[in-house]
Amino acid sequence: MRRIGQRRQEPPGAARLPSDAGARVRLLRALRGAGRFVVDWSPVFVVLFVYDAIHNRLGRFLPAAHTLPQIRVDEALSGGTVPTVRMQRAFYSPAHPRWWDYATLAVYTSHFFVPALVGLSLWVRSRPAYLRYMKGFVAMTTLGYVTYVLFPAVPPWLASQRGALAPTHRLVRELWDHLGHHGVASLFSGTTLYANDVAAIPSLHAAYPLMIAIFFWPGGRPPTRAALALYAMVMAVALVYSAEHYLLDIGLGWLYAFATAFAMSRLEPAPGTRRP
Questions:
Q1: 3-state secondary structure (DSSP) of residue 76
Q2: Number of H helices and number of E strands within the chain?
Q3: Mean of the per-residue pLDDT values for the chain?
Q4: Is 81 helix (H, G, I), strand (E, B) or coil?
Q5: Is pTM beyond 0.90 here?
Q6: pLDDT at residue 276 in the model
Q7: HSE of 146, CA atoms in CB hemisphere, 13 A
Q8: How far is CA 226 from CA 168, 231, 234, in A?
Q9: Contacts of residue 172, Cβ cutoff 8 Å, sequence gap at least 6
Q10: How many Å apart are CA 155 and CA 239, to the nearest integer?
Q11: Distance (Å, rounded) from C-alpha 53 to C-alpha 40?
């Protein structure tokens, strides 16, 4: 008889079975997670692909870009001088960029990764929250792209180049050149195929920070809410100062964010709420 406390002898190789099974389980989980990631993020890439195809393949069939309406609205709102022109005359020196110019560049550039990072963080932490966020993101982006197709609009820097507005500088391009990143600057030269230079109304640059603020506002603490509101406001100021958008563009971008959030709240209320 085997004494009490004596370990039982296992046959050779038996100890490796749990390890092998665990490796297979981890592999299946990784594959399942990768497949879920592709499915969950595919709507974003579909929207981008369709819009890029319309912009680069069917651009000659789209309406002519509008220049004067947004200038007239901004002149009326600011007392006769477009805010971009007034701000650059007061604060910008092309030969000697200052710290607020680089801060403007950083805020503007954050547009290209902050919404995606927020979505990725939600996808890792809570897939239901991610799906609610991404539905609003895709819906608002689609509305913005449809507007770009139906109503192309010239931004301030391009209006200046065409002689419709007093001289302004495209800070984003000039600052990247000043930093020595000429390849990045060329993306904002006005001749690249990777960007639509007449996609100004609405300003999705302004809409995304507000969309993020609205999404996190209900459960956010006062410091979080203050940071969200500050980001949206600073982005708006940066867009006007850098000659990328008019006040009208930003106001319409905010309107799109509010309208999308309201529609999503009616179609799919957040957890813990009831329909009125």
A1: helix
A2: 12, 0
A3: 85
A4: coil
A5: no
A6: 38
A7: 7
A8: 32, 9, 12
A9: 105, 108, 109, 188, 242, 244
A10: 10
A11: 22
